[in-house]
């Protein structure tokens, strides 16, 4: 069977997908066939971007490409999140671009920010990842924080999906429909003792208090309150 060029990476990963929790595919900074293969094979896209003006234009082109692939080849593809990298808080442009990302993408923007860090920049020259080159550097700690944030997001989404799939049992008496009534074997409120006619208003008040205490029961309390009120009427 002939496989299109854009499906080659998906077919290559299919036998081993279930052996890993997460597979990260590093893509080149260009919208070429390698990037298209990665987008077709992936479930979601993590977009690292520098907080500069031209990066915003590249992001617009990438979002358009993701929409095209979603419409034609991979309908489950979604944006995992946007990661702000090489961030310098002293730069006004970086802060402005960061604010625009938060305004347009909201929760899709990771709270973790990768700062501009010399240790991150020099790690490739030593042939080591940043965590092995200097695990205590600000850049390495930021990437560890990113990993923790991604794990928390996955756990929250799994909990929300489980809660949505769990049926909610109806609670008797709280939903629409007739209220339950006392049937055979059901405890009822005791009938209040008749109050002498000469008791006056004080006796009526006492009977009403007793009836109010029994009024929390179904039907029995109401019947007792009505009987007591009639007996407490002054002659």
User: Percent of residues in helical segments?
Assistant: 40-55%
Strand order of the largest sheet: 1-2-3
Radius of gyration: 34 Å
Query: Which architecture of the domain at 5-116 does the CATH hierarchy give at level 2?
Result: 3-Layer(aba) Sandwich
Q: Give the beta-strand count.
A: 3
Number of helices: 9
Largest sheet: 3 strands, parallel
Strand content: 5-15%
The CATH superfamily label of the domain at 5-116 reads: P-loop containing nucleotide triphosphate hydrolases
Overall pLDDT level: 77
| Residue windows where pLDDT falls under 50 for at least 5 positions | 183-191, 196-235
**CATH secondary-structure class of the domain at 5-116:** Alpha Beta
CATH topology of the domain at 5-116: Rossmann fold
Find the structural class using helix and strand composition.
Answer: mainly alpha
Gross morphology is globular
Q: Give me the strand/helix succession.
A: HHEHEHEHHHHH
The rounded distance between the terminal residues' Cα atoms is 102 Å
């Amino acid at each position: 069977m002939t496989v299109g060029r854009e499906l080659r990476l998906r077919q290559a990963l299919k036998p081993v997908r279930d052996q890993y929790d997460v597979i990260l595919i590093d893509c080149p900074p260009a919208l070429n066939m390698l990037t298209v293969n990665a987008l077709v094979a992936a479930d979601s896209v993590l977009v690292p971007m520098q907080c500069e003006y031209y990066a915003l234009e590249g992001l617009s082109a990438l979002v358009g490409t993701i929409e095209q692939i979603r419409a034609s080849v991979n309908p489950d593809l979604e944006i995992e999140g946007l990661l702000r990298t090489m961030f310098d808080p002293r730069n006004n442009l970086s802060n402005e671009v960061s604010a625009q990302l938060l305004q347009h993408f909201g929760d899709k923007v990771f709270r973790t920010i990768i700062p501009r860090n010399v240790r991150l920049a020099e790690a490739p020259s030593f042939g080591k990842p940043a965590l092995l080159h200097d695990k205590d550097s600000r850049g390495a700690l930021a990437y560890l924080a990113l990993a923790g944030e991604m794990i928390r997001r996955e756990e929250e989404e799994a909990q929300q999906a489980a809660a949505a799939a769990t049926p909610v049992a109806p609670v008797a008496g709280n939903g629409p429909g007739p209220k339950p009534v006392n049937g055979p074997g059901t405890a009822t409120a005791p009938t209040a003792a008749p109050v002498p006619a000469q008791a006056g208003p004080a006796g009526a008040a006492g009977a009403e208090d007793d009836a109010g205490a029994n009024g929390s029961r179904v039907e029995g309390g109401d019947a007792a309150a009505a009987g007591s009120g009639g007996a407490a009427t002054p002659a």
